[in-house]
Design brief:
With 126 residues, this protein is of the alpha+beta class. The protein contains five helices and seven strands. The chain has a domain of 88 residues: Roll (Structural Genomics Hypothetical 15.5 Kd Protein In mrcA-pckA Intergenic Region, Chain A), CATH 3.10.290.10.
């Protein structure tokens, strides 16, 4: 077997949880094959380059293998190789998210009378 549908490969490689989600992403322009926007039925071959965008995260990968069926996550690493630039950009994005999460302060217990009034006004205005 040397080729498979793009949506089926994305599902088998565990980039998307279901095939309809993979199909929707390809149709919506979130997946590019060899630099071109394609349809979900396009055949993927070993050596093809894929650009996949899932939310803020972007993957640049090279197809290394083809599976008809979805296999365990430990085996999915054999299906593709991620470019070093893609890994570096994802790492930087994760670091930014961690810093942003650390900057937020958690509320300290119950709101006092003054804070409750602001909350009530906010809810009423919505």
């Amino acid at each position: 077997m040397d080729s498979i549908r793009l949506d089926k490969w994305l599902w088998a490689a565990r980039f998307f949880k279901t095939r309809p989600l993979a199909t929707e992403a390809v149709s919506g322009g979130k997946v590019h094959l060899n630099g071109h926007r394609v349809k979900p039925g396009r055949l993927v071959h070993i050596g093809d380059a894929l650009h996949i965008q899932r939310g803020p995260v972007q993957y640049e990968i090279i197809v290394k293998g083809i599976n008809k069926q979805r296999r365990p996550a430990s085996e999915m690493e054999q299906l593709y190789e991620e470019t070093p630039e893609s890994m570096e950009s994802r790492k930087q994005l994760m670091d930014l998210h961690k810093m942003a999460a650390g900057a937020r302060t958690a509320p300290s217990g119950k709101p006092n009378k003054h804070e409750r009034k602001h909350i009530v006004r906010f809810k009423r205005d919505q």
